[in-house]
């Protein structure tokens, strides 16, 4: 994984993916300068996630989708879209949970915990079941983090039973769609020989 991360971009698509990834640290700086340190902290939480696609070697198009999804989710918090745009919370839970669950499956496949997607010996239903399970798990952990944030950090964080169930349902649906994608679309780059 380290070699994949350190390998320089080799085509335009990989350069684009790395340029999108660079928006992460730039976002942190922008939030610190023009918003607040807590907003910069929210965006800083994305930084670790933004390097995961590079470590596991996903295709550039999926890398871009992943990075943009994570950044949109974080900026939506900073800009207040979750409170001001009706239904935006559910859209982000659907897309973000699906993208994160698909990436989690790729990470587990790289670590040989689950079978590689699209391998001849992998049953198509396996990624669908595993990605859906990962998405529901991620949704549950996220909602627990929201509850902990409201309880221990900031009582103004909006948490209600209906919101929690709706968010988890949207995330679960996104994970099912992501499972279908993982079962049918190659998300991982083929290994390349190093350039001489």
Describe this structure in words.
By secondary structure, the protein is mostly helical. It folds into 2 domains: 12-79, no CATH class; 86-188, no CATH class. Helices cover 74% and strands 0% of the residues. It is built from 9 helices and no strands. The chain has helices spanning 2-6, 12-34, 37-44, 46-56, 60-78, 81-84, 88-110, 125-153, 161-184.
Question: What is this entry, summarized?
Answer:
This protein has 196 residues and is mainly α. It is built from 9 helices and no strands.
Q: Let me know the average pLDDT.
A: 87
Amount of beta strand: under 5%
N-to-C terminal Cα separation, in Å? 20 Å
Number of discrete domains: 2
Unreliable spans are none
Count of runs of 4 or more consecutive helical residues: 9
Characterize the overall form.
globular
Question: How is the topology of this model organized?
Answer:
Elements: H1 2-6, H2 12-34, H3 37-44, H4 46-56, H5 60-78, H6 81-84, H7 88-110, H8 125-153, H9 161-184
Helix pairs in contact: 2-3, 2-5, 4-5, 5-7, 7-8, 7-9, 8-9
């Amino acid at each position: 994984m380290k070699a994949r991360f350190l390998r320089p971009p080799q085509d335009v698509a990989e350069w684009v993916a790395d340029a999108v990834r660079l928006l992460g640290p730039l976002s942190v700086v922008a939030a610190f300068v023009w918003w607040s340190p807590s907003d910069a902290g929210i965006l800083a939480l994305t930084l670790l996630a933004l390097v995961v696609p590079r470590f596991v070697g996903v295709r550039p198009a999926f890398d871009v989708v992943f990075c943009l999804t994570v950044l949109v989710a974080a900026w939506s918090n900073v800009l207040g879209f979750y409170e001001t745009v009706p239904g935006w919370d559910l859209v982000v839970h659907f897309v973000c949970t699906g993208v994160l669950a698909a990436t989690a499956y790729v990470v587990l496949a790289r670590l040989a915990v689950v079978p590689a997607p699209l391998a001849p010996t992998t049953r198509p239903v396996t990624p669908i079941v595993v990605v859906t399970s990962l998405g529901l798990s991620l949704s549950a952990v996220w909602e627990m983090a929201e509850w902990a944030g409201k309880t221990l950090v900031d009582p103004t964080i909006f948490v209600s039973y209906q919101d929690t169930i709706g968010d988890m349902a949207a995330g679960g649906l996104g994970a099912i769609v992501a499972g279908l994608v993982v079962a049918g679309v190659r998300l991982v780059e083929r290994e390349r020989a190093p350039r001489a």
